From TrEMBL:
The keyword Amino-acid biosynthesis does not apply. This is DNJA1 protein. It comes from Probosciger aterrimus. Residues 1-57 form the J domain. SUPFAM superfamilies: Chaperone J-domain. The lineage of its organism: Eukaryota, Metazoa, Chordata, Craniata, Vertebrata.
Length: 92
């Protein structure tokens, strides 16, 4: 994981580490987890999306123009994106 105030470089390193570990080519049963990792990275690595999420969670992301991609889709609660990186996993 990374600390809450993580830099973009720290987020990239965490994403790469997790993406390699859970990539479906290496772990076919982890396809959903890999998708969640990618979605979390999409939000955390984009300053605009991250700011939207910081202000209003999942609802702000949906209203912020992400459309059907739904930047936080697949996460059960607004905090799951951050829990995934900062706390080690998505709550189910």
């Amino acid at each position: 994981g990374v600390r809450p105030g993580a830099t973009l470089d720290e987020i990239k390193r965490a994403y790469r580490r997790l993406a390699l570990r859970y990539h479906p080519d290496k772990n076919p049963s982890e396809g959903e987890r890999f998708k969640q990792i990618s979605q979390a990275y999409e939000v955390l690595s984009d300053t605009h999306k991250r700011a939207l999420y910081d202000r209003g969670g999942e609802r702000a992301m949906k209203e912020g123009g992400l459309g059907s991609r739904g930047g936080s889709a697949g996460f059960g609660s607004p905090m799951d994106i951050f829990d995934f990186f900062f706390g080690g996993g998505v709550r189910m």
